[in-house]
Amino acid sequence: MRRAVVWIMIGLLALLAAGGALMAVEPKAQAIALHVAHRVVRKVQNLIDPPQSLAAVRYRLFDKATAAVIGPPGVPDEASGIVVFIDYNCIFCRRQFQVFEAMAAEGRPPRVILRHLPHSVDSIALAQALLAARQQGGAEALHRVMAAADQPLGPGDLPDLARAAGLDPERLRADAASPEIEALLDGDVKLAWSLRIESTPTMVVGTELRRGVQSGDALAALTAAAAGR
Where is the DSBA-like thioredoxin domain positioned along the sequence (predicted)? Predict the structure, then answer.
């Protein structure tokens, strides 16, 4: 098995090199090469770390001790809770946050466990800050401030965001840099990979995994079905 993985990786390197040469020749050829390279990467990863089922990781998904939770008081459980993988700089995630807010305004606020799948260095900093805000009891407040942004955010915005959420910026910065917070973020990314989640927002509701922005009615129907109502 290991020898097979090594040879696949060698082939991948050769393929990527060829893709770089093709880049200067024709954009279409570049796109084809990158598509094939992506498929090879997936095959290698599947050999090293096979995908898991929702049932196999359900406890970790709904473990509120390792994540921030938004919504009404109570423990989000498998019957009525929603797990969503997010990136605070993802415009589609911001649309999903608006759906959550609209549901709350309509008197049917969802209970949501936030898990992170950042796609940039800036988004990594935002995810770590959100996780660290739990230590000041302000994760939901910081989430709402970041979710309402209408432009890309980065580490330089965090002091103002923290103050807007009623948090101590210096403490937030120190907490976000701790090994414990880094481990929590690593855990979220590993969870996403175990389910082969690559895009945001992606949600787990009951036994369903849904990719992309979901309407309030769709989420209400899914949570009702999961709860047997």
Answer: 121-220
Cα 162 to chain centroid distance, Å, stands at 21
Tell me whether the omega of the peptide bond preceding residue 179 falls within 30 degrees of 0, making it cis: no
pLDDT tens digits, one per residue of 188-206: 999 999 999 999 999 999 8
For the cut 80, the answer to whether the pLDDT of residue 99 exceeds it is: yes
Helix or strand run (H / E) with residue 164: helix 158-164
How far is the first Cα of the chain from the last one, in angstroms, to the nearest whole number?
47
Question: What percentage of the chain carries pLDDT values higher than 90?
Answer: 66
Residue 229: exposed, middle, or buried by beta-carbon count in 10 A (0-12, 13-18, 19+)? exposed
Q: Which amino acid is at 4?
A: A
Contact 87, 44 (CB under 8 A): no
Q: CB under 8 Å to 71, separation ≥6 — which residues?
A: 100, 104, 109, 110, 111, 112
Cα 70 to Cα 102: distance, rounded to the nearest angstrom: 14
Residue pair 204/61 in contact by the 8 Å Cβ criterion: yes
